[in-house]
Amino acid sequence: MSTLTVVRPGPMTTVQDWPGRAGYWSIGVPPSGPMDDLSFRLANLAVGNDEGAAGFECTLGGLAITVDEATTVAVAGAPVILTVDGTPVPTWAPVELLPGQQLAVGATGSLGMRVYLAVRGGVVVPDYLGSAATFTLGKFGGHDGRILAAGDELPIGTDVAAAPRRILDDEVPAFTSQWHLAVTVGPHSAPEYFTDADIATLYDTAYEVHFNSDRTGVRLIGPKPEWARPDGGEAGLHPSNIHDNAYSVGALDFTGDTPILLGPDGPSLGGFVCPVTVTTADRWKLGQLRPGDSVRFVPVRASAAASPGAIGTARRANLPVVLSAGGDGDDGVLARSMTADAETTITYRRSGDDNILVEYGAMTLDLESRARVHALEQRLRAESPRGLIDLTAGVRSLQVKFDPTALGQPAALDWIREAESQLPAADDMIVPSRTVSLPLSWDDPSTREAIERYVLGVRGDAPWCPWNIEFIRRMNGLGSVEDVQRIVFDASYLVLGLGDVYLGAPVAVPLDPRHRLVTTKYNPARTWTPENAVGIGGAYLCIYGMEGPGGYQFVGRTTQVWNHRHPHAAGGFEPEHPWLLRHFDRISWYPVSTEELADLRADTAAGRGSVDITAGSFSLSAHRAFLAREADDIVRVQSAMEIARDEERGRWAAAGEFTRRAA
C-alpha cells in the first residue's frame, strides 16, 4: 500500500468522507464530512473514486504533499494556484504525481473558503461510528481525530470506481462573493414566531458573513427581527427560545437575535427557532462562504429544489443565482391534525427538503407530549423504510430525517401520519428509567473562566453576568444563591433528549415542577464552554458533552458523559457505544470539590472510573398522580417564580435589552 506524506498542512486540513457519519444525530454526533460536498465529490470523480471516498478538506488552502508511488490526484473547490514542483497544473482535473514530487495547493483568494484534494484509491483511516470523517471538536474520526500536521503519513487505498476524467466546465460550481442560497420555509416561521415583516426582511436583506464562522455554523450580520412573541415562555425570556428540538444542517438558527447557518459539525438539538432551511442541493455553498461575503436567501418550493444526488448540470450549481418562482407559501406547516384521542394537536413542519419535524401540543413543557414522541419514534424505527436516515427526539417533537432521493417529503409525511394514527394512549406508557448519580462541582472555576471570557470577548453588559447563579436566583425569586444550590441537588432530572450540545449531552427537566428553575439563554451565545459544564436554560438542565459554544446558565461541572476511549472500556459506559445516558434516565447530583472532580475526571479518562446507576422505570400515569397530589403547592411555588420573572422582564425592558441590536 502506497503512502502520502503531508509536507505542509495549511491552516486547517482534515480527512473527510461523504456523506459523513449518518445515524447518530439523535445522540449528538453530527455528520461532519465535507462542508462543500459538491466540490469534494467532483474531486473524487476526477480521480475515478467513488464519490464518497475519504479525501482532504483544506480550509484556506495551503496543503502540500508527496507520495512514495505514482498516484493520480485532483483538486477542486475554491479557486487556487495548484503546482507540482513549482509548475502550474490544472484544478478540476486528474494530475499524475510521481514519487518525490511535491503537490502544492496555493492559498484561497477572494472567492471561496475551502479546497478539496482527492487521491485515487482514497486515503485510509480507521472508521469511527461508521465513517472516516473528522470531527475535530469531538476529537474523533479522520487521522487521530485532529487536523493534519507536517510529517503525517497516510496510507492510500486501492478501491476505485472508474477511470479518471476531467470535470466539465458546466459541472464546475460558480464561485462568488455575493451568494444566493435556495431555502425552504420552516420549521418555525411567521406568523407563529416571526412577523410577516420579519420574513419579508429576511428575503430582502443581503446578510454579511461574520468572521466568527466555522464548520459548526456560519454567523451572519443583519437586521434584528421584530418577533411575533414577547418571549419564549418556559423555554426562556427571549422570543427566539423554544423547547429543545432537533435541527437540520443548513437551518438558519436565530440564537437570540443572531442568525447562524448550521454547518455539518453543528449541534443536533437546541432551543432556538429556525425560520428557513437551505436546501440539500445548495448546502455546498456554506463551505465556501468567506467573512465579508454577502448572502441572500431565495425561497423555493421543496418539490422544485435541485436534487442533492446530482453533481452535474441538474444540480444547477454552475449558476451564480438561484432561479425560483417563489416558495411553498405555507409558513413551513405541512399539515395539522389531532391525536387519536382528540386531546393533543399535532403539527408537521418542513425542516428543509430532507426533514419533517413532528410537534405535539402547545409550546409548553408536558411530559405526555414527550411520551407521544417516544411512542412515535419506536414505531417509525421498527418500520424503518428505505431512505430513512435518522430519528431525533426533542422535548415535544420528533425530527424525521430522510434521503430525498429515496423517500420524498410527501411520501414521508404520509408514512409518518399513518404511523401516528395507530399509536396507543400515552397514559399507558411505562419505560425503563435508570437513576444515574453524578458528581457536581458547584460554581466550578472552569465555568467562572468561561463567563470571564464571554464578558471580555463577546458581551460585557449581559444581565446574566458576572455570575450566572445569581442571575438564576433573581430570575426565580429565591432568597439566596444557596437556595439555587439546594434545589439543584434536591431535584431528579428526567432526560428528554440527548445531544443538546453534542456527544450524548442530555437535556433534562426536573420531575417535580417546584424544582424547575427557569432562565434564559445567553444572547449572543458563548464561543467557549468547558467540557461537561452543567447549565440551565429555560426550564432545562444540560451537561455539555465537549468544549464548544453554548448558552445555558452555568451552575457547575461534572464528569464525562462521553467515552472518548471508545471502543476501549470506561467505567459506567456500556461497551457497545460511547454515550453514557439514555432517554428517560433520571440524573441526581452529589456534591464534590473542584479537586475531587479533577480526580474523578482523570479516573474516567483513564478508564478507571465508575458511575452509580440503578435500574428503574418511569410511569406517566404515576407521575400524573403525583402532580395531582401536589397541585396546590406546585401552583404556589411556580406563581412566585413567575412573578420574579415578570420583574426581570421589566428590568430588561427598562435597560433596552429587548431592543438592543444583534452583535
UniProtKB/TrEMBL annotation:
GO terms for molecular function: ATP binding; hydrolase activity; lyase activity. Keywords: ATP-binding, Hydrolase, Lyase, Nucleotide-binding. SUPFAM superfamilies: Cyclophilin-like (SSF50891), PH0987 N-terminal domain-like (SSF160467). Coiled coil: none annotated. Residues 26-318, 346-581 form the Carboxyltransferase domain. It holds the Pfam family CT_C_D. InterPro entries: CT_A_B, CT_C_D, Cyclophilin-like_dom_sf, PxpC. PANTHER family: 5-OXOPROLINASE SUBUNIT C (PTHR43309). NCBIfam families: urea_amlyse_rel. This is 5-oxoprolinase/urea amidolyase family protein. It comes from Tsukamurella asaccharolytica. The lineage of its organism: Bacteria, Bacillati, Actinomycetota, Actinomycetes, Mycobacteriales.
